[in-house]
Specification:
CATH class of one domain: Alpha Beta
CATH architecture of one domain: 3-Layer(aba) Sandwich
GO molecular function: serine-type endopeptidase activity
Largest sheet: 8 strands, mixed
Structural class: alpha+beta
Protein name: S9 family peptidase
Helix content: 10-25%
Strand order of the largest sheet: 34-35-37-36-38-39-40-41
CATH superfamily of one domain: Alpha/Beta hydrolase fold, catalytic domain
Number of helices: 12
InterPro entries: 6-blade_b-propeller_TolB-like, AB_hydrolase_fold, Peptidase_S9_cat, WD40
Shape: globular
GO biological process, one term: proteolysis
Keywords: Hydrolase, Protease, Serine protease
Strand content: 25-35%
Radius of gyration: 25 Å
Number of strands: 41
Length: about 675
């Protein structure tokens, strides 16, 4: 029996559940992870005739997640596979402005680091490697002349010293003097910095543009070729890590050029984590970017769009306000901004008229957009729904599908989430409820409460393969967006500021009460679980209420006093909670699941990723040890070599099998 069959058989037999499925369809199974194809990075050709994109799959032989490139006709038709590297990946494809080339990132080289590669758009020749820096490449962009690229890299890492036999000597001690000294995926942060470089595609000459003790991110070449915009902090390196004061700079694409600062707001002008680079107007006179609030509000304040004249510095702030916005860019005529705009439980594509501030939504309904691209008057979007993974569509009067992947799901019984509204402390709270396979009105079901990460994030109508597994195994899935979530504006998000585990706990419990009131959730069979802040809130919930029969807490923490200086968020702790020696009461109050672990009666499975500097294993270790000391049923799983986002396919399958098995053990009749 294959992986797909094994995963499904274990789950369904364990619960003793035989769902009534849609006619001719089978249940979604854990092993279907190996069948799913995840699309990303759509890039339209300059003539608008074709779209290139990356497709991520799982290689069971190597037990690795890999990706390849495909190109599909805009008008519809069969996609062509451009790369086929089962043990390597290609991602982030981008057409050259003249349409002759496709550049992309790949780890297909001998040293397996991410480098820029180039292939002819017309085919007929193998891709060739363009860069060769030992630290690898994290981002790149085209020059408008199509003969150069700008890229971001930490350059060449120091080569290991050799002994007399030619073997590597032990690496030198790591010396650190920065305030922020670690970051997930990058590890310990030393003097090595990310800088901008250009590379000539004719002779391979690499030119370094930025230098110094600060990083550079998200480069964007102006259409006239004279400047490159980017994001950086260039204040004193000793204090830069303490703030979120990112700014926009421009620099001429030549050695020795002096950067010029464009934004002067004493807060965040494009956090690199937003993946929304500053973008030029077609005439190279203006830039559009995203700006958040003052530092103390960190990620709670929805960011606004800023349009600035590069010469005069004059700024304007297009609508919409009090919405999280992503990836804004100018329309081809420069009269509008096209951007992704968050809605309650959704993300839509919008056009904002710069003269009138009128917002016209180009997509709508229960769907979540991740990315888009425009060229030659055409627009493509990458989005998903409850029952369909990410797909690429043409944005016309109606969305018209372009990509054709995941057709196997046509034969699978999938379940959409319905929207629920409820009141908690006089505040309207939104939630989503996915009913189980074979749902019968009037019958109550074991219910898994999913808790989202962030904390400033929200559950939306997007494809969640784990929800489909739970539904296929007879569980209702309840996803509450409590206060602290995004999608509802600044006041709603900041309701949990420096007060985690208070009103958000109340809101999730109110959501459970609503699902019970609706006659769907069985009050005697409620489970809860989440990852990242979803795990943190899970720990708050089980320390506040004993109704839960089982909990799964992944990549979480419950003792900010211990995490201060141990994870990557020290600056954010100080901005929101203060320092432990000045605000000890806040740290102990927000650490109540660990400091009052004796309140917890729920059997809890803890999980973590070994190399996670975002939410390190320390948090799971402490909670596991506390429950083990209290003789509460518990288990602890560590995923070796993984960062905050787990990528090894067998680990993803194992995590969901363990999670489902834990719920089955304590929640089945």
């Amino acid at each position: 029996m294959g992986l797909r069959g094994i995963g499904g058989a274990i789950a369904l037999v364990a619960l003793g559940f035989a769902p009534v499925l849609a006619e001719g369809k089978r249940p979604f199974e854990i092993g279907d992870l190996y069948n799913l194809e995840d699309l990303s990075s759509p890039s339209l050709s300059p003539d608008g005739f074709s779209v290139v994109y990356a497709v991520e799959t799982r290689n069971a032989d190597a037990d690795a997640t890999v990706s390849d490139l495909y190109v599909a006709p805009y008008k519809g038709g069969v996609a062509t596979r451009l790369t086929d590297t089962p043990f390597a990946s290609e991602w982030s494809p981008a057409w050259s402005p003249d349409g002759r080339w496709i550049a992309f990132l790949s780890d297909r080289g001998e040293d397996e680091t991410a480098q820029v590669w180039l292939m002819p758009a017309a085919g007929g020749a193998a891709p060739r490697q363009v860069t060769n820096l030992s630290a690898g490449i994290s981002d790149f962009g085209w020059a408008p002349t199509s003969d150069r690229l700008v890229f971001v890299s930490e350059g060449d890492a120091p080569a290991p010293e050799k002994d007399s036999r030619g073997r590597d000597r032990p690496v030198k001690p790591i010396e650190i003097h920065r305030f922020q000294f670690k970051e997930d995926y990058r590890g310990y942060l030393t003097d090595q910095r990310q800088h901008l470089y250009t590379v000539s595609l004719t002779d391979g000459v690499v030119t370094q543009l930025t230098e110094g003790e600060n990083d550079a991110w998200l480069p964007s070449w102006s259409p006239d070729g004279k400047q490159i915009a980017y994001v950086a902090k260039t204040e004193d390196a000793r204090t830069a890590d303490r703030t979120l004061n990112y700014d926009i700079y421009v620099i001429a694409p030549e050695a020795g050029a002096t950067p010029r600062q464009i934004s002067h707001f004493s807060g965040t002008d494009v956090d690199p984590y937003w993946e929304s680079r500053p973008m030029w107007s077609p005439d190279s006179r203006k830039l559009v970017w995203l700006r958040s609030g003052e530092d103390k509000w960190i990620y709670y304040k929805p960011w606004d769009m800023v349009v600035a004249d590069v010469t005069t510095g004059e700024e304007s702030y297009p609508a919409p306000r009090d919405h999280f916005v992503y990836k804004p860019r100018f329309s081809d005529d420069g009269k509008s901004i096209i951007a992704l705009v968050e809605q309650p439980e959704a993300m839509w594509l919008a056009r904002i008229d710069l003269a009138t501030d009128k917002v016209t939504y180009l997509t709508s309904g229960k769907r979540f957009a991740y990315d888009f691209d425009m060229a030659a008057g055409r627009t493509v979007i990458l989005d998903s729904t409850d029952t369909a993974p990410n797909a690429i569509s043409a944005v016309e009067k109606k969305l018209r599908p372009i990509s054709r992947h995941n057709d196997f799901l046509k034969g699978v019984d999938l379940h959409a989430a319905e929207d629920i509204k409820l009141m908690s402390d006089g505040v309207e709270i939104h939630a989503m409820l996915t009913k189980p396979a074979g749902y019968e009105p009037g019958k109550r079901y074991p219910t898994i409460v999913r808790v989202h990460g962030g904390p400033v994030y929200q559950f939306s109508h997007e494809f969640n393969w784990d929800w489909q597994v739970y539904a296929a195994n007879g569980y209702a899935v309840l996803a509450v967006n409590p206060r602290g979530s995004s999608g509802r504006g600044f006041d709603f998000a900041k309701a949990i500021y420096a007060d985690w585990g208070n009103v958000d706990v109340k809101d999730v419990l109110a959501g459970i009460d609503k699902a019970v009131e609706m006659g769907v959730a069985d009050p005697d069979r409620i489970g809860v679980g989440g990852w990242s802040y979803g795990s943190i809130l899970t720990n708050y919930l089980i320390a506040s209420d004993t109704r839960f029969k089982a909990a799964v807490s992944g990549a979480g923490a419950s003792n900010p006093l211990a995490n201060y200086g141990h994870d990557q968020y020290t600056a954010l702790y100080e901005l929101e909670l203060g320092t432990p020696w000045t605000n000890l009461e806040v740290y102990t109050r927000t650490g109540y699941p660990f400091l009052h672990a004796d309140r917890i009666k729920t059997p809890t499975l803890f999980q973590c990723a070994e190399l996670d500097y975002n939410v390190p294993c320390l948090g799971a270790e402490q909670m596991y040890q506390a429950l083990r000391s209290l003789d509460i049923e518990t288990r602890f799983v560590i995923y070796p070599g993984q960062h905050h986002g787990i990528t090894v396919p067998s680990y993803l399958v194992h995590r969901l099998q363990q999670t489902l098995g834990w719920y089955n053990r304590f929640m089945k009749k």
